[in-house]
Amino acid sequence: MDRGLWTMDRGPWTKKGGKTNMDQKKILIIEDDIDAIEAMKVVLESKKYQVIFATDGKEGFEKAKSERPDLIILDVMMQRTTEGFDVAQNLRRNEQTRYIPILMITAITQKTGFPFSPQTDGEFLPVDDFVEKPIQPEDLLKRVETLLTLPKDKINVEGKKTIL
């Protein structure tokens, strides 16, 4: 049986070439800017990552629990200026999502003038990497690849470790 890109000739639905859809790393983008989501999605899907998204913190938190992504890309400013900070804290407090690496992205300094820096303020954030928008495709991929290989004991669950 052949269904375009998918086949059943190797048991469960398998991508032609032998890899099942279970082999793909799943990335959840929590971001309120649809254009930013689409831009990151194109870059990530070009490297065969499975991308899902949410447009606010509440939806993102629920999707993180139900979808169990391998990585979360989290915007800081959504409906509220600090919504991403709150979502990061909630993700780390929840046993289902505690050890999912988080890449935080933001334009908070540009938009508010608030001089946030991961070097000086990062110890208070339970995220694993932090980058200012806009992020270049090569930089996004490099950071994603690094975080996807991060050992569980290196994930910044307490907000006390140095951000990458």
| CATH superfamily grouping | Response regulator
Distance between the termini: 46 Å
Largest sheet: 5 strands, parallel
Shape: globular
If you had to describe this structure to a student in words, what would you say it looks like?
The chain has 164 residues and is an alpha/beta fold. It has one domain (23-154): 3-Layer(aba) Sandwich (Rossmann fold), CATH 3.40.50. Helices cover 34% and strands 18% of the residues. It has a five-stranded parallel sheet, sandwiched between helices. α1 links the parallel β4 and β5 (50-54). α2 packs parallel to α3.
Short account of what is shown:
Helices cover 34% and strands 18% of the residues.
Q: What's the arrangement of secondary structure elements?
A:
Layout: E1 2-3, E2 6-7, E3 14-15, E4 26-30, H1 34-45, E5 50-54, H2 57-67, E6 71-75, H3 83-93, E7 102-106, H4 108-112, H5 118-121, E8 129-132, H6 137-148
Helix pairs in contact: 2-3
